[in-house]
Amino acid sequence: MAYISISRGFTASLSERFDEMVKSIRLTLHRRRVFKQTQRELNALSSRELADLGIHRTMITRIALEAAYGK
Question: Taking every annotated instance into account, which residue ranges of this chain make up the domain YjiS-like (predicted)?
Answer without folding.
Answer: 26-60
